[in-house]
Design brief:
single chain, Rossmann fold, 7-stranded mixed beta sheet, 26% helix
Length: 190
């Protein structure tokens, strides 16, 4: 899925990546942003922070990566234009708190994009012991709406990808794609 082809990235001056992993999506978005944009990223794994800082040192935008938790973002309220979270929420026990934090840091008219697992192949659960069955996209959308976000796109079957194999059989996951925009304060409180 070409994630940044699905959304309008014009006007993004401050972007936040929640759980950026290898930094691949940071590099993809960087190629679409102006040189003056600021890109922030948080990752719970400090080794990934260091590896990604080295890997992404050539991007033209200012890049600030740090180790932090999604449930307690170290940014001021309404400080970001864009928040991106890919394959992270399903791994966070208090994912609703993480969503609330993403909404807290997004400015009015800013957008939150979440891509995550909607279901796992049952064989993967048996092999991995992974207790996370994925997330209900409608429930994630409901949490965003409860925090004043308007849903722009919700694709419950955005992609199906393999994540390995077992006895020659491919193991797959399905993902959902969700984009929401924060309504202006005057829209929320007329």
């Amino acid at each position: 899925m070409a994630i940044f082809e699905r959304i309008n990235v014009n006007g993004i001056e401050k972007a936040l990546f929640v759980g950026f992993g290898s930094g691949e999506e940071i590099a993809q978005l960087s190629s679409k942003l102006g040189r003056g944009a600021l890109i922030y990223g948080i990752e719970i794994n400090a080794m990934l922070v260091e590896a990604s800082q080295n890997r992404l040192k050539e991007i033209p935008q200012k890049l600030v990566l740090q180790s932090a938790r999604a449930e307690s973002l170290p940014f001021e309220s309404t400080s970001m234009d864009f928040v991106f979270c890919r394959i992270v929420l399903s791994e966070i026990p208090d994912w609703k708190r993480a969503v609330a934090e993403m909404v807290r840091v997004i400015r009015p008219h800013g957008r939150v994009v979440i891509v995550d697992f909607v279901s796992y192949n049952p064989d993967w659960l048996a092999v991995s012991g992974d207790a996370h069955p994925g997330l209900d996209p409608e429930m994630v959308a409901g949490v965003l709406q409860a925090h004043g976000m308007r849903i722009l796109q919700l694709d419950n079957a955005a992609g199906k990808g393999t994540i390995g194999s077992l006895h020659g059989e491919r193991l797959w996951v399905e993902t959902f794609f969700l984009e929401a925009i924060k309504e202006a304060e005057e829209t929320l409180n007329p």
